[in-house]
Specification:
homodimer, alpha/beta, 434 Repressor (Amino-terminal Domain), Rossmann fold, 3 domains, six-stranded parallel β-sheet, elongated, disordered N terminus, DNA-binding
Amino acid sequence: MSKKRRKSNKVSLDEVAQAAGVSKMTASRVLRESGGYSEKTRVKVMQQVDQLGYLPNRLATVFAGDQRSTFIGVSIPDLGNEVFSQVLEGIDRKLGTFGYQSVLGLTRHTPQEEESWIRTVLSWQPAGLILTGRYHSPRASDMLRNAGIPIVEIWDLNSSPLDMSVGINHFDSGFDMGRYLIGCGYRKIGYVGTHHDAASAATARLDGFCKAVEGGGGAVIRQLRLNDTAAYYPGYYGTEQLLASAAEIECIFYQNDAMAFGGLQYCATRGLDVPGDIGIAGWGDLPVASVLSKRLTSVHVSHHKLGQVAAEMMLARLSDEPAQSVKDIGFRLIPGRTVSNTPRS
Amino acid sequence: MSKKRRKSNKVSLDEVAQAAGVSKMTASRVLRESGGYSEKTRVKVMQQVDQLGYLPNRLATVFAGDQRSTFIGVSIPDLGNEVFSQVLEGIDRKLGTFGYQSVLGLTRHTPQEEESWIRTVLSWQPAGLILTGRYHSPRASDMLRNAGIPIVEIWDLNSSPLDMSVGINHFDSGFDMGRYLIGCGYRKIGYVGTHHDAASAATARLDGFCKAVEGGGGAVIRQLRLNDTAAYYPGYYGTEQLLASAAEIECIFYQNDAMAFGGLQYCATRGLDVPGDIGIAGWGDLPVASVLSKRLTSVHVSHHKLGQVAAEMMLARLSDEPAQSVKDIGFRLIPGRTVSNTPRS
DNA sequence: TTGAAAGCGATACCAA
DNA sequence: TTGGTATCGCTTTCAA
């Protein structure tokens, strides 16, 4: 009240202590249940805490002590893509259970936005960082190296990570799908995705896919990369565009299941039989695939688990337990019924 | 190096200042571009900033000054439900643009988890809070009132909010759908949703729905509330259960479009014609509906916009602009083609 | 078991 | 244009 620079009307530990007739150190010890104090003192202090509605200021705590905050910065490209909202859910549920909070950053896949977000988040002294993707701008990499906190790079498995990495090998997952489609007899294949740059996991998938297809005597005769999100409707109109420009395509591989589902709907609308007239393959095994009458050919990845494992590695590190630094959570090709394994040609 | 309680190897403002041969106040002014300093000084300081890789400690800034942090606590029930991941995306994109960060809390719709999350987040001195839902535990309400920061309650429009509110009137949206289905001639109606408690917006929707149906001479003859998430597959098997227990149902209203889509797939699998044999109505107008060959009967709500508006109200308040305290973003019934407007009975 | 004093990294305020 | 000093709320350290 009397002080000049009182920043708010919040109750401070000192006020609680005075009200309880003890020093603030004693009150501090009671609240942290550390060091020695008598039961009588504890009761007196806790009474005042309740009475005054005292809430500790953790900023001051972290600032004063050698402690770290309980923030974990989490960067995610976007939440429109169900893949990433599942990863985030997995991360935050696990972190929350252990008293940590996610500080979100939607970085749109761009290194510049990531860099600026990293700078800001680091200034809040986070306990650790979980980043999607393995590519970071040079300045971001510098900051990360100097931060001296645990860092988990997720999604695209990084065999020589800054610190730790969890994910899958996207190249291999694309390769396996390519090989599978070749094995089914397809030769003229198309791809529908969004505009992903060279550093993206989707690009690695596509590279692996093309390699397998070409190695097997087929060809990815057209790759459509839309300037849109990897969602249902772009899959729908992307399929339309693709088939309009290359009618001979026998099978289409999509960036993810949402787009593949859009493609399925386009085919249904046009009366194209799947897989009779055209094969459809997705990626990610998203929930929408769980209710289709024909199982969607796809690649299963446990997104929720990926997030959980990332959080677990972070937590292990924070409590100085021995932690693996690289973890491949794997994938599984799902044959499904939207491609035909009886070659037509 | 020489100091005793050096908490880390981080570079402090004082070190930068010393290296540049000025006082830390001068360095502080340069970095904040406030007050007066000469160009020569600016250059000297900035050089050292680059050289030493100085990152400000915002904890200290907030702690020292009258400033607030740039954290906004955001509580969301879960991200598996696309509705909420869209809301969150809308919030974080807007906040991020203005230099604020979302501190996430997945509170599972339970007041207890919300309370514990609120306590933690408040201890970090956030600039504001965005909370999903209008019901809070008594202790949470106390803390919120005493926090003295802007609070936006979203989702379920609250005409007498703690502070501000954005959302829609869920009761009305359910009512409109009920009236619409009655107008189409349906009388024996079912509901499939998840287990939502009395405080949930989904309950308000269902209440409004029932009122309209009963007022129109129909009956909601069975309400199925699954102990599961409001997702595709529960919609699928929920439909199966519902029809097994009440075959006379002519039309089903679902908690959201994801569940309705699961219902559609169940009908397709069983050879039931929609809307010939049974009507299907969803809620939320989720992206999946955008690619169905038959437009799903639903209620459109702009989830992304809801998040944006919530963030805008928060930002306005934080910059002391006049801000509306209650905003209804509205909804729109989408007739669609999964219910029939030619009554059969 | 308790308390007094120093200090964490920055900013506000006032003086030079 | 600059710098010294007090201060934010709490914990650490040391002494009683």
